[in-house]
Amino acid sequence: MLRIGLTGGVGCGKTTVANLFAEKGVPVFDADKTARELAEPNQLGYSAIIAEFGESILDNGRINRIKLRERVFANPKDRKVLEAIIHPLVYQSLDQQAANLTAPYCIFAIPLLLETGRLDFIDRILVIDCNTEQQYERVKQRDGLDDDTIGQIIQAQANRSDRLASAQDIIKNAGHIEELRGQVEKLHSNYMALSQYLA
Predict the structure, then answer these.
(1) Among 186, 193, 164, which Cα is nearest to 21's?
(2) Where are the alpha helices (DSSP H) in the chain?
(3) Segment holding 107, helix H or strand E
(4) Same domain, 21 and 117
(5) d(Cα 164, Cα 126) in Å, to the nearest integer?
(6) Cα atoms in the Cβ-side hemisphere of radius 13 Å centred on 40
(7) 93 and 157 in one domain?
(8) CATH code: domain of residue 9
(9) Between the CA of residue 144 and those of 13, 139, 147, what are the distances in Å?
């Protein structure tokens, strides 16, 4: 089975593109969703995160993701500690989720694919790209974050030129859903053809 790693900067439209692939019946696995689930009470990441960051990040027994995000983006060392806890668990879980698939190909939506260095996990990199101004605008509208916070998130991610240089496939997201749909259709046909070589 062909494994596609879908990635891109914050606000570039990764979720929208992943949903378009899912509409075509393609299995899609979301690293962010998996990470959130692993940080829930009684899950593998929960106790390890509390052990490192203390109970001040809890809210009614659950990890307050806003508090944790503010802390790790203010302190790069804390961010590396959190990533060392959660990233291996996420990749392990994603692998398990996809283990019994019989589909020609699947999509792994992994925002930090390049940053984690796990290119061995996938067969091709699909980068969703837009300009920096669009990133700021979309994240403000979606999450209500200020420019400084958005800037910190962007700085913590691989830069745009490195992402594009790493890609075998690129979708340009100017914000028009029909344009995205057309690009997804073309790539879907390509991936279906490529998957035949792995069968």
Answers:
(1) 186
(2) 14-23, 31-38, 44-53, 65-74, 76-98, 113-116, 132-143, 147-156, 160-166, 177-198
(3) strand 105-109
(4) yes
(5) 9
(6) 7
(7) no
(8) 3.40.50.300
(9) 16, 7, 10
Instruction: Supply the Cα-derived Rg of the chain in whole angstroms.
Output: 17
Q: What is the DSSP letter of 94?
A: H
The confidence score (pLDDT) of residue 48 equals: 93
> How many CA atoms lie less than 13 Å away from 90 in the CB half-sphere?
25
Residue range(s) defining the domain that contains residue 88: 33-100
Q: Which of 31, 167, 36 is nearest to 109 (CA)?
A: 31
Half-sphere exposure of 139 (CA within 13 A, CB side): 22
**Which among 54, 72, 100 is the end of a domain?**
100
Q: What is the pLDDT of residue 146?
A: 87
What the block records as the tokens of 53 is 């960051």
Q: Which residue has the tokens 């420019």?
A: 147
**For each of the chain's 199 residues, which pLDDT tens digit applies?**
999 999 999 999 999 999 999 999 999 999 999 999 999 999 989 999 999 999 999 999 999 998 998 888 888 899 899 999 999 999 999 999 999 899 999 999 999 999 999 999 999 999 999 998 998 999 998 988 889 888 888 888 899 999 999 999 999 999 899 999 999 999 999 999 999 877 5
Q: Please tell me whether the overall predicted TM-score, pTM, comes out greater than 0.85 for this model.
A: yes
